[in-house]
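Materials and Methods. Structural model of Calmodulin. The 160-residue sequence of Calmodulin from Halteria grandinella was retrieved and submitted for structure prediction as follows.
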Amino acid sequence: MARKNLTTYLFVDIDLQRAEVREIFELFDKNSSGRVSVSELGTIVRALGLNPTEAEVIEMIKKVDLQGIGSFGLKQLEDLVKEKEKENNPNAFKELVDALRVFDSDKDGLLSAEEFKHAMMTMGEKMQEYEIDEIVNDSDLVQNKQIKIETFAQLIMNRV
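The predicted structure was written out as tokens:
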């Protein structure tokens, strides 16, 4: 992954994907009930760029409609899309960790707050300083002003 695309990959694309899932869900939620018929699932996932077979759609329906009520909500769709994307790109976590390691000048698996800030403010879709500060101040990610690359990558992968 190119350095200039790192922040786009991490934040912009994820937010756009979530917005797209929400938008398509709302198009099919014709009565604004927060539920969509399972009969629409194949069409919805295809509109999102996934290309399941009919057998795969049947399996997806089983995953989103655990109670057998014939419909599913936005959360079930988001979870399904996240799962399918991970299946389609099983190397995504490794690729993300490798991309972050580009900025790890001393190759210790940690990014200093300054390395992280520089990368996020100068490469690709630039983050605002307050956004970076929120990440740097997250006690689960930062230890001694160092961001744990694998922990940060895991956080990002869970957002997808």
